[in-house]
Amino acid sequence: MENRQPGNLGRRDFLYRALLAGGSASLGANLAGGAVAPGAAEAATEPPPASIYLALGPDEAAFVEALVNLLCPADELTPNGVDCGLAAFIDRQLAGGFGKGERMYRRGPWRQGPPELGYQLPLTPEEFFKAGLAAADAACRQHHGRSFADLDATAGNEFLTMLADGRGGDARVPLAEWFNELVYPLFIQACFADPVYGGNRDKVFWKMIGYPGLPAVNALNMVKFRGQPFPGAQAPQSMADFG
User: Fold this and answer.
1) Which of 102, 142, 197, 201 is the most buried (most CB within 10 A)?
2) 58-93 residue pLDDT tens
3) Is residue 52 part of a domain?
4) Is residue 23 part of a domain?
5) How many C-beta atoms lie closer than 10 Å to residue 12's C-beta?
6) Looking at the domain assignment, is residue 9 inside a domain?
7) pTM of the predicted structure, to 2 decimals
8) How many domains does the chain have?
9) What count of Cα atoms within 13 Å lies in the side-chain half-sphere of residue 81?
10) Contact by Cβ (8 Å): 84, 200
11) Confidence label for 29 from pLDDT (cuts 50, 70 and 90)
């Protein structure tokens, strides 16, 4: 949509205003574009304490914490998503090179492309993530009368399903694309990435699926144990174990 008349903002205008309203960095002429697809996890350093967020503000962190706890509720296999480090992983990815769009084409022109080309907005992944949070929470307040962080599990699941199916939010905000191509892939990465990146705390997901961690990528081990249980699967090793 390119109509920029008052009362009928274009999609780019809406996202720019959502970012400014959310207190994110001002958008200059050289914002990132290209397809949003979470890449490899950022630098392998010890995660900050769970209560410290590098990219997310308080309201944004509350949304993300509610999201990961909903997608990963505590049960006999894992703690809840926050305790597994999933919110910390997402925050660190947004604060790092991936979130800043370091590997993305960062020069225009920004023409509207066909849907099969994917994400076409001149925003970095961090900016798109934050704009989507603002739009999603606004849609949640419209549908449920309260923020996403205040929904119970049933209402939260229904709301996320609505977003994923493209049935929620303003038509100018690609919330289905935001959830399916940015948020959910980051959640999956948070579960199964090496714990040095902040998620998969105590290797809980590796233990759950019987993945041995770093030894599994050794070429000799890949040949030797192909199609067989790996002997070290119950005591997986991360990069930190070889430091």
Assistant:
1) 197
2) 999 999 999 999 999 999 888 999 999 999 999 999
3) yes
4) no
5) 19
6) no
7) 0.77
8) 2
9) 24
10) yes
11) very low
Say whether both 169 and 216 belong to one domain.
no
pLDDT(3) > 50: no
Cis peptide before 109 (omega within 30 of 0): yes
Based on the fold, state whether residues 129 and 230 are members of the same structural domain: no
- Residue 184: both structure tokens together: 């959910």
Tell me: do 116 and 219 sit in the same domain. no
Task: Reduce the DSSP state of residue 159 to 3 states and report it.
Answer: helix
pLDDT bucket at 41, cuts 50 / 70 / 90: low
The answer to whether residue 109 sits within a structural domain is: yes
Task: Record the tokens describing residue 65, joined without a space.
Answer: 């914490």
Structural domain boundaries enclosing 78: 32-208
Number of H helices, E strands in the chain: 9, 0
Phi, psi angle pair for 224, to nearest 5°: -65, -40
